[in-house]
Design a protein that fits this description.
Blueprint: H1 2-16, H2 25-33, E1 44-45, E2 51-52, H3 95-121, H4 127-144, H5 146-153, H6 162-166, H7 168-180, H8 187-198, H9 203-233, H10 235-239, H11 241-260, H12 264-269, H13 276-283, H14 286-292, E3 327-329, E4 346-352, H15 357-373, E5 378-384, H16 394-404, E6 410-412, H17 417-421, E7 429-433, E8 439-444, H18 449-463, H19 477-483, E9 488-489, E10 509-511, E11 522-531, E12 536-538, E13 542-558, E14 561-567, E15 570-577, E16 582-601, E17 606-612
Parallel strand pairs: 4-5, 5-6
Antiparallel strand pairs: 1-2, 3-6, 4-7, 7-8, 9-17, 10-11, 11-12, 11-13, 12-17, 13-16, 13-17, 14-15, 14-16
Helix pairs in contact: 1-9, 1-13, 2-3, 2-9, 2-11, 3-7, 3-8, 3-9, 4-5, 4-7, 4-11, 8-9
Length: 613
């Protein structure tokens, strides 16, 4: 049990710092600092509504007037002079705790019981999502219009703690966010989701869910407390409390619209999945597999012969059947596809969901393979195994697939039967099946697309030695090490190939380039930089040098400003950067070459990750 709790906590912590939860972070931050505000020129009010500190005969913090019977009055109608009112103690802003508590309660409860409740009541599968969006809009309106906020807090008015009453709106906001919280799913969340979808809720699953929820809560609470601290310590926030609340309300409404229209997903797709490696090490470790093994029975155990992303094709047993499918689309007449009918072809079975950011980032690679190798005998089948209840609705999946450009056959695995048949644990997951119907390779999560393409090409040649294959859509793995500099994160914990002044975490520091030339695949800093976990932020006279080998160099940048690009000491272009993190092309050559790249970066710009092509 202790091991299960630790796995849940670590899985939750990793999830809460992944790109998938970015949409809720601004709301959590602002909600932590936007308590019920009073105009600076007006007397403060006690929780009971009476004025304090500005004259009048009211006692502070819920006290009674002097003419009432009590410890401060006299009996039998005698008139007493009220003692001076004690200064009212300003209640501590507990909104950060209320918001995060509401999110954790909502997420944990509805992840486990949402499907059961929806099915029992005969409600639409995406009703919870609509409720969450509605709550987010209402809370936003409440921050803009105080009467709406008072209306939202009425359900909490009978609770005995006055401070709880005042934070009822914050708790309601957390409840709404919990319904919209769609984190990147690894094996831990997969175990919770599947158990909830089937109503198979054991004590182990409850413990796993609670520990996972607590793990996700810790970083979110830190973020909310940071928002509260900024609001309390920065004078401009205190002076403009009312304006800040209106801005937070508008942000929540904009977020609700963005989530409803799936606008936020475009931003998330543009960011690298910087937690996937850690997630796999924790959640797919031997200890985690043993603890989560209750998901699987003994069927199709041959799949255990293969390991994720193996360097060679293996025989992993016959491909399990596509069973328990609710419906199909992107097939003639929406008829089902039988794997047996694809003998002689190479088949890629892709487990995905349309709202999973990791899956969305993988779709362009699948689309390239479908176009490049279909005539050579490749067939792709998407098995849509839902993570959340709203992903079961056929119209949602069809619309999501169309938006992403998924035009190959898709099976709606709403009961997760096929997911179980393949003993799957990840979204996305790709299984390659040879022409004889045997699973030969699988890859969990994102990345290693060149290796997967290499395996596809090998299987196509095995199926037909005379086949003529087009040029690879990517580069073969054995070419990469020699011909291309690897992806490099600008992160104080994950950077590789850095040389020069030692990095200082999370505070502006002056750096200097080392003397002499930079070796291949090495980078260095000059000027002022702040080296953080997710990005490096440029300060005064910021420069970055990188000796690379590739046809093109790219960098994810955010903020507003300009970047001057120099290649081998010669200025080649100036890039204008604006907005959220976006990939910018720095160099573009016809053939791969080795060059020294130098960037002169405007103050305030943020740099995330280098990629090379």
């Amino acid at each position: 049990m202790v091991t299960l709790i630790l796995i849940g906590l670590l899985g939750g912590l990793i999830t809460a710092v992944s790109p998938c939860i970015l949409p809720v972070l601004p709301v959590v931050f602002l909600a932590g600092g936007t308590g019920r505000g009073e105009d600076p020129g007006k007397p403060a009010r006690s929780p009971g509504g009476t004025e304090v500190g500005g004259g009048g005969g009211a006692a502070g913090d819920g006290g009674r007037a002097a003419d009432e019977r009590g410890s401060g009055g006299t009996a039998d109608g005698a008139v007493a002079t009220a003692p001076p009112a004690a200064p009212a103690r300003v209640p501590r802003n507990r909104r950060p705790y209320a918001v995060v508590a509401g999110l954790v309660v909502s997420f944990a409860f509805f992840t486990l019981l949402g499907v059961t409740i929806i099915s029992a009541l005969g409600l639409p599968q995406d009703i919870l999502r609509y409720v969450g969006l509605g709550l987010l809009v209402l809370i936003g309106l409440g921050l803009i219009f105080p009467p709406v906020e008072r209306l939202l807090e009425k359900p909490f008015a009978r609770l005995p703690q006055r401070q709880v009453n005042k934070e009822g709106g914050a708790f309601a906001l957390g409840l709404g966010l919990g319904l919209l919280y769609v984190p990147c799913a690894g094996p831990v969340l997969a175990a919770i989701t599947i158990a909830g979808a089937r109503g198979e809720i054991s004590s182990d699953i409850v413990v796993l869910t609670l520990s996972f929820a607590v793990g996700t809560a810790v970083p979110l609470l830190v973020f909310a407390l940071a928002g509260r601290r900024v609001a309390e310590r920065v004078a401009a926030f205190r002076r403009r409390a009312r304006g800040l609340r209106i801005a937070a309300g508008c942000l929540m409404i904009v977020l609700a619209v963005g989530l409803a229209l799936d606008v936020t997903a475009a931003i998330q797709r543009s960011l690298p999945d910087y937690t996937s490696g850690v997630q796999k090490k924790i959640e797919d470790s031997d200890a985690a597999r043993q603890q989560l093994s209750g998901l699987y029975d003994n069927s199709n155990k041959e799949l255990s012969r293969c390991e994720d992303g193996a360097d060679e094709l293996r025989s992993c047993g016959k491909a399990p059947a596509l069973e328990g499918i609710d419906s199909w689309f992107n097939t003639p007449g929406d008829r089902p596809v039988d794997l047996k009918s694809l003998r002689g072809k190479v088949t890629l079975v892709d487990f995905w969901t349309y709202s999973c950011i990791n899956c969305q980032r993988a779709v362009p690679h699948l689309r390239d393979w479908e176009r490049a190798y279909r005539d050579a005998g490749l067939r792709i089948i998407g098995v849509h195994s839902p993570e959340f209840a709203f992903e079961k609705k056929r119209s949602n999946v069809v619309a999501g697939a169309e938006k992403l450009g998924v035009d190959w056959p898709v099976a709606l695995d709403n009961d997760l039967t096929t997911w179980d048949n393949y003993r799957n644990r990840f979204w996305p997951a790709k299984y390659l099946i040879d022409a004889e119907g045997t699973v030969r390779y699988f890859k969990f999560g994102e990345g290693e697309y060149d290796k997967t393409e290499k395996m596809i090409r090998e299987l196509l040649r095995q199926a037909d030695p005379t086949v003529t294959l087009p040029e690879p859509t990517g580069r073969a793995m054995d070419d990469l090490a020699a011909d291309r500099t690897p992806e490099t994160y600008l992160s104080n914990l994950r950077i590789r190939g850095y040389v020069g002044t030692p990095l200082v975490d999370d505070r502006p520091t002056a750096y200097r380039f080392p003397k002499g030339s930079l070796p291949l695949n090495k980078l260095s800093l000059d000027g002022t930089w702040t080296a953080g976990y997710e990005q490096f932020t440029a300060g005064k006279d910021a420069k970055l040098a990188f000796t690379y080998r590739a046809k093109n160099a790219n960098l994810v940048l955010a903020g507003t400003g300009k970047v001057t690009v120099l290649v081998n000491g010669e200025a080649t272009k100036t890039i204008s950067v604006t907005g959220s993190p976006t990939l910018y092309r720095l160099t573009d050559d016809k053939d791969a070459r080795t060059a020294r790249l130098e960037l002169r970066v405007d103050e305030g710009l943020q740099a995330y990750v280098f990629t090379f092509g």
